[in-house]
Amino acid sequence: MQSLFSWVTSKTKPRLAIAKASHSPHSLALYRALRNTRDTQHPISLQIYLPSCQTPCSCCTTTTPRVASLASSHDYLQALKNELTLIASQLSQHNVIKQLEIHGSSHFLSLAQLGELMGFIEQKLCLQADFFNDYHLTLDPARYDWGDISKLHQLGFNHVTFGINLNDHSGLNPLRHVRRLIEAARTFQFRSIGCQVFYPQQASKAAHWQPLLDELSWLMPDRLQFIAHASTANPALTVSPYLCSALRTFTAADYTHLGNGQFSLGDDDLTIAYEEGFLAHAEQGYTAHQKSYQIGVGVGAVTRIQQFEGANTASMAHYLALSLTPQLSITRTQPLTSGEQYQADLQQAWLCQYQLTLTQLQHAFTPAQSTAFYQLMQHLTLLSEAQLVNLTDQRCTLTATGRLIALPLWQSIAAYLPVNTL
Prior knowledge:
three-stranded antiparallel beta sheet, globular, 15 helices, alpha/beta, 17 strands, nine-stranded mixed beta sheet
C-alpha cells in the first residue's frame, strides 16, 4: 500500500521541479496551461514537428531552407524526448492523446527512430493505439515500401497520407508508388488513408490532371486534399481550374467537399464531424478533434490550450540548446483577447459552417468604425458578383466554388476587421 509520504511527494514532484529551476515567463505560462489540462483531464492533440526538406517534396506543405542540415536526426530525436519529458511532468494518464500528428518530413527520422519516439511517448503520456484515436503521418511514397507500411502500423500509426507532387519532373506517373502503398495500408487495416496532392499553376500540367483525378477516384482513398504549390500559389481570389476539375470529379464520386480543396468519403471521421456539426479547421486542414487541446513539440511547434497560444523557437540551434537545459522551448506566448477569440470564432464559422450573418460581422465594429464596416460590405458585394459568395440582407454564404478557396476568402475579409475587436 502506498504511504502517505510517497503519495504526497508524487503529487507535488512536478511543482517542486519547476521551483528548483529558473524558468522564463513563457515556460511558466505554458506550465500553468498544462496543469489546467491535467486537472480537467482534457484529451490532447499532440503535434510533433520535424524539420522540413531543403527542397519541396511530396509530403511537406512548407519548406525550411537548410534546417535539415543543421541537426542530425539523433540530436533532434533526443531534443524531442527532453521536451516531451518536461511536458509529461505536468500531465497525467487521464490526458488521453486523441490525435497524434507528425508534421514536416517524416523520413527525417528512420523507422527505428520513429519507433523509439512512439515508444517514448507511450511511456511518458497516454498513447492508446486503438480504433477511436487518430495517429497520423504523411509519407513521400517514393521512400517507402509495403514492409515499411506494416512496420508503421505496428508502431501504432492508424492513419496515413501519401503525398503526390505534380511538380515531379521525372515524366513518370506521379501515382506509380501510391497504388501499391494504398493497397498495403488497406491490407494492414489503417483506419484512414489519404492523398495530399500538390498542384502547380502552369498550364503545361493540365493535360495530365484529369487522368490523375480519374485514377485517384478509382483508388478511392478516404481523404483527399489539394494544395497549391507554395511557389506558385495564386494570391488573387480566383479559383484554379485544377480545383474546379477536382470538385466535379469527386463530388460525382460521392465525396463530401469540406472546403479548401479537401474531400472525404461518407464514412470518414471528417464527413461525420461535418454532418454532426463538430468539424473544425486547424493549420493543416480540417479536423474532427475540435475538443482536444493542441500541444506542439519541436522546432516552431504551436500550442493552443483554451485562450493560451504559444510557439516554440523557430531556430534549430536555439531549440537544440534549450533542450540541454530544464527550460521548455517555447519563446512566444500570446493569450487571446476577447476580440481575438471573437475573430477566431468567426473564422471557424466561415470555414466550417460556410456562412456568417451580417450581424456577426457588424458586431466586430464599434459605431465609430462604421466606415470600415461599409468598406467590408463593398468587398463582400464584389465577392458576390464574382459568384464566390451569396450575399443577402441577413447573411453571407459561400458558394460551392467559393468553398474551394474558403481560407483565402476569409483572409480577405479579416483584413477589414478591426485589430482590437470588442
